[in-house]
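User: Predict the full complex structure for these chains.
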Amino acid sequence: MKTIISAGIVALSALCAGPAFGQNLNGAGATFPAPIYQKWFQEYKTAHSSVQINYQPIGSGGGISAMTEGTVDFGASDMPMTDEQIGKLKVRPLHFPTVLGADVITYNLPGVSGALKFSGDTIANIFLGKIAKWNDPKIAADNPGVKLPSTDIVVAHRSDGSGTTFVFCDYLSKVSPEWKSKVGASTSVTWPVGLGGAKNDGVAGIVKQTEGAIGYVELVFAVQNKMAFADVKNAAGKFVTPSFASVTAAAQASKDLAADFRGSITNAPISSYTWLLIPSQIQDAAKKKAITDFLGWMLTTGQKDAEPLSYAPLPAAVVAKEKQQIAAIK
Amino acid sequence: MSSTFRNRRRNAVNNIMLTLTGVCAFITVSMLFVVLAYLVYNGGKSLNVAFFTKLPLPTGEVGGGMANAIVGSFEIILFASLIGLPIGFFTGIYLSEFGGKTLPFLVRYICDLLNGVPSIVIGIFVWIVVVAKVHHYSAYAGAIALSIMLIPITARGTEQFLQEVPRAMREGSLALGASNWRTIASVIVPAARKGILTGMILGVARISGETAPLLFTSLNNQFWSAGISEPTASLPVMIYNFATSPYDDYHRQAWAAGLVLLALVLIANITARMIVSRGVSLPK
Amino acid sequence: MGTPAAAIRPGSKSVSRLSGGDELARAVTMLFALAVLAVAALLIFELWIHSSPAKEKFGLGFLSSTLWNPVTNEFGALPFIYGTVVTSVLALLIAVPLGVGAAIYLSELAAPRLSSILTFLVELLAAVPSVIFGLLAIFTLVPLMRGYIEPALKKTLGFLPLFTGPAYGVSYLAAGVILAVMTFPFIISVSREALLTVPREQREAALALGATKWESTWQVVVPFARLGILGSVFLGLARALGETMAVTMVIGNNPGIHASLLAPGYTIAAVIANEFAEATSDMYRSALVELGMVLFLLTIVINGLARILIVVTTKKGSARA
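Assistant: Here is the predicted structure of the three-chain assembly.
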């Protein structure tokens, strides 16, 4: 009995010590860029073994909330923080765009081969619950010649606070006045219909496992899970396939970002920047160095990881401006 | 004539209903085996050395493991036990051996109350008083949450087994001139130690499977835990995250983790029962 | 029963024999006991404080409003209360007949040795963690529901509003079923004990009067133990109400009120688990804490009733023995 207790105490002290050297940083937030963030932090740790950055994907809403509570060193979000949210923080957060990603409409229809096409109005009506079956005339109109089954449409959306939701709803608000007035755009909205899944992973999971399901996820989740995703009609009336190439093009064509990097692009493919939220003042000098070093690495070496994961790298002009913002961290 | 018919009908009803109860017993008992079968089959397929030795890989990459979650769970549970077991144990002694009427009654009532708190509520409580106050997710916050669940179980269990020590032993010791606390320490507790130990094992087994209290306290970590005051991976949270993801490799690992967790919990329970091999009912 | 030591415990009204060591021991252990009281008090205090903003803003309307809108900071608890109640009642509807039936078998019919072994196995089921039930439910129960059980229910009972709508798989029904499996052990274990405390004379008297075994059981023994059985039902209910993980994984996370059991829904515990981490405004968090308090109060009341019933039965049984 005594030996067990002493062994336990020794083991515990050993565990408490942890890596006695090195920096530990904790971040939480968006699941939209989680695949590339996890890759980055793993690579970064391999390259700089004394810096361990733990990133937990809990949704953009969670990232903003954790930043507000001060329980993490940095946050991540696909929805830029509003002035009201920024006002709640003691230390003003800086937005650092990292990559661009695309929200794709992924669906599960085993009988249908090739990508379906949707116009913005059709998508809005599906998610409003007004189109309930796959062989609805509106869907057929977007897809002439495709044989659509009479399966029920199962809508899947996020149950947690999500930047991916914001990006999607921002797009829907722009193409559908009804959506704009009824639902609006934010990290958490009141969905008219559908099943809720937590994180991008949850929505992808629902769609993958439920026949007839449709949902919105970041491109890489559909690609990695070999799920079908749709071509979306852009403002010019052309159907665009979301891909690394089309997202990069959308990035180049987007208006210049505001000086503080908050802004959104919304056309097809439904794309968005995603941001790391870094406090503008960091007391701990070692932590500050670790963060600024990482940001510098991210803007240069890190961008190479974007293409294999179907994210678009940042345009050169944005990278240059961000490097200046790094210097602004005190 | 009609009475024989009635009797035959009554006998028929008798046989049918009694058989039905047997069917009910069969269905409910077999649930355990259904659970075991699925976990052994799916988890067994997925268990490999990598699971125990590697760290999780980024989403979409195949071949990671849950080494950090296994160690992390161990760390959190150990810490929770170091907090919860002594507090529960001494509270149990108080309830059984000391105290008058009102305070023990109140403490017992509060223990039962805490036992019934939904674990998610304990999670948000610890987030409010620990995580939000120190502005940090940490393993010790998770341990505190689990210890709050462990204390009432341990206290009531300890009290129950101390109560069962025969009066003769107490009286004998006191008659020999030993003081009260001497009697407790040298006679009563040792006499009840099997039962108390059982209660402790069962309590620890119960908290080791809890997920909800850890969601907002110890969070999770894709690397090795950097210490007790940092977010730490744990098996239950990993299982939850991986099971609700779309990746097949994550599903595979979730099954494996489920098997490992279930095996540990069941072994603890069976061991505890074997220590106390008389049919004592579980302290609920 | 009382404390055997109390009978000759020094320090009461008669001789004060407490030596210094005893006084110290008493103080130390009392300190731990008080610590437990302190933790519970803090828990209730913090829940109360943090739910105040929501309580002030919404008042009692919180419990009857169905609007849950984090954007406009309007929150209503009804869909979650509804989901919690529906899934728990469903769980009981499945678990009570099966559980009481099994308990009857185990106490009346099975040989004592077999009965102990089987009860032990059922109680092991209580040790299975919730997240593992959830894991199983996602990959086995939900596809089963979606592919076979729900379509079958729709075909046969689809005229009832209870079984309409698409077969998602994730639904109140799936949550109710998995909750039922988690509730079995409590009902069986406690009911069996209640039945075992029924004095032998009762059974023998009924049999002597010519009753069949079933008639003796159902008309004499079970009514005698009915308070204990009822207590077990409340115990199971309390457990089902607070269940988080397994339910979150199969209920579909839809904050609405639906008549159909095949529809997705939400429970209090599930919404807290999903949304607490990202409650970006104080009002949002306060609403979730208030939900937690509602759940807590529910489980206190039901657990309390359960304990009273169980204690009453045990006393009655042992008094008569």
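Residues 10-16 of chain C have pLDDT under 50 and may be disordered.
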